[in-house]
Amino acid sequence: MTQELSPVDLAQRLESLESRLAHQEHWLDTLDQAVVQQERRLEKLEQLSGLMRERLREQHQALQASEPQGGQRPEDELPPHY
Questions:
Q1: Each residue's pLDDT tens digit, 7-64
Q2: DSSP letters for 24-42
Q3: 3-state secondary structure the chain
Q4: Which residue from 1, 3, 25, 28 is spatially nearest to 13, judged by alpha carbons?
Q5: I need a labelling partner for 50 at 20 to 30 A (CA). Which of 14, 36, 41, 44 fits?
Q6: How far apart are the first and last CA of the chain?
Q7: Rounded to an integer, what distance in angstroms lies between the CA atom of residue 30 and that of residue 24?
Q8: Could you tell me if 8 and 16 are in contact, meaning their C-beta atoms sit under 8 angstroms apart?
Q9: Which contacts (CB < 8 Å, 24+ apart) does range 4-12 have?
Q10: For position 69, what pLDDT does the model report?
Q11: Phi/psi of residue 72, nearest 5 degrees
Q12: Quick check: helix, strand or coil at residue 79?
């Protein structure tokens, strides 16, 4: 059985649907903004990670260059009482 709705009921249903649609569009916009912000933060963190990796590599190379060529480092030597 189909139920005939009055024009007032139809208007209320339409208004309810429009309200729900507007609410959903608002939340989609909010989520889109959050995703954009997270993407920006992720890009910055990836850049920072790359810079830190490069500096660590440079420090490691500088440390290796300053080590004696014999391969023995002072911190690897045993103290005299051993």
A1: 999 999 999 999 999 999 999 999 999 999 999 999 999 999 999 999 999 999 998 8
A2: HHHHHHHHHHHHHHHHHHH
A3: CCCCCCHHHHHHHHHHHHHHHHHHHHHHHHHHHHHHHHHHHHHHHHHHHHHHHHHHHHHHHHHHHHCCCCCCCHHHCCCCCC
A4: 3
A5: 36
A6: 99
A7: 10
A8: no
A9: none
A10: 66
A11: -90, 130
A12: coil
| 61 residue type, one letter | Q
Whether the Cβ atoms of residue 67 and residue 61 lie closer than 8 Å to each other? no
Q: Give the tokens for residue 51.
A: 């810079």
Residue 73's pLDDT band (cuts 50, 70, 90): low
Inter-residue contact 41 to 49 (CB < 8 Å): no
Residue 48 CA to its chain's centroid (Å):
12
Residue labelled with tokens 């997270």? 38
* Rounded CA separation 66/61 (Å): 9
**Identity at 48, one-letter amino acid code:** L
The pair of structure tokens assigned to 46 is 């990836």
The encoded tokens of residue 3 equal 């139920």
